[in-house]
Amino acid sequence: MDHSHAAPSAEAGDQPLFTAAEIREFDADDVEAGKNLCKMLSLFFFYTVIVMGLSTYITYSWVSG
Asked: For residue 20, how many other CB atoms are within 10 A of its CB?
């Protein structure tokens, strides 16, 4: 199995890898992904707090009852 990489040609270096429109699209996608990730993490944290409170109440009820 050969893991060597071919050297890039001089012609490939003359042109940008992405156009300005593609870069703007990538930025918009990154912002959307960041917002969705923030929402998911917030919901998971809220779920954790609810479960922690419920388990604390149940444990206290069992111990003191």
From this structure: 8
Place of tokens 């992904």: 33
Question: Tokens 């890898």 — which residue?
Answer: 17
Query: What whole-number distance in Å separates Cα of residue 24 and Cα of residue 53?
Result: 44
Helix (H) or strand (E) holding 30: helix 20-64
> For 11, how many CA atoms within 13 A lie in the half-sphere containing its CB?
0
How far apart CA 56 and CA 59 sit, in angstroms, is: 5
Walk along the chain (65 residues) and give the pLDDT tens digit of each residue. 666 665 556 565 688 999 999 999 999 999 999 999 999 999 999 999 999 999 999 999 999 97
